[in-house]
Amino acid sequence: MAAAKQYWVYHERQEALLCGQHALNNLVQRNVFSPGSLAEIAEQLDQMELNYMAQNNEGGTQSKDFMKRVAEGSGNVDESGNFSIEVLRSALMNSYNLELPSLRQKGVGDARDVTEFEGFICNRSSHWFAIRKINGRFYNLNSTLERPEIISHFKLAAELEALQSAGYSVFCVVDSLPPPCTSQDMMESGLPQYWWSEENLIQGKTDSTTTRRDNDPWKKVGSGRRLDGKRPGSGGSSSSFGSGLEKSVSEMTEDEMMQMAMAASLEQQSAPSIGESAYEFELTAEPPEGAPGAVKIQFRLPDGTRAMRRFDSSDRVGALYAFVSSKCPKQRIELRAGFPPSDISSQRDSSIAESKLAGEMIHGRYI
Predict the structure, then answer these.
(1) Among 105, 183, 281, 354, which has the highest number of CB atoms less than 10 A from its own CB?
(2) How far from 93 is each of 46, 87, 97, 201, CA to CA, in Å?
(3) Where do the record's region annotations for Disordered lie (predicted)?
(4) What CATH number is given for 8-203 in this structure?
């Protein structure tokens, strides 16, 4: 008699405020979407919106509406890495040809039971999370949870209704999601620390498939990580939330996460400015698309405009300063990356690869 097929559940945990990325990866059960790829989609959507406004508003690029939209910055991603529903929809469509309609959209949930859907993306304010059907069972894959939680078919409709009553928007995937993991080879599509055995989850065991809790890197995260993998405030004083004890991001409320971002931002703003001489670096030649070692980096320039350029991963971070300086001549600038956005001047002699800035959004400002 053939052995029963084994299933694994992929559950990325919260890092910084990148819950939109984690929700998508948990939905498709693969580590497919990165902050950089989603930021690129956001930039494309922003440009499409601006082009439409320029062509259809009286006054074109000089109209009040157009100038207001430019001044507001991106409507599809903010500085902390929160992406819009349009970014998530575009990412799913581009990678899997999947639509992500609202559950309340006419004709979507009217004539079928919610248990017939394969997955859901839920959103309120700046938080996103996924619910996914795997081997006939639904799992709450909220990235703030320690482990996936099973939702019975009987409770699913009530859970979704309760979420919507609490102010959540619920989006759905009818079918055709990528198949769940059923082999060791398929586990290569995800990060190893985030896999859970279906059998262990059903039995209520608290250990993931590949990583014991004592080795769980999230237990040591403390007050969170920036996009570059470093701790917020690692170069200066630390902040707390009244108790004097550090919390992991998975334990924080949305308000606490915003307090963390604001506190770190205030600390960074008090740092001393660095003179122009620190930014005298050569702008290297842009490598061709697809060249070995070529990486794309997004920029929000000090004047509010956006740019994207390829660099070699071996280029020094100083080349990023040279690029921004070429766009803003005779101006003293500061560049930041990560969450909360942190000054990267101390990394200017390191390579882009060493500083883990490939695919990042670099924020510039005048000083």
Answers:
(1) 281
(2) 17, 10, 4, 31
(3) 205-249
(4) 3.90.70.40
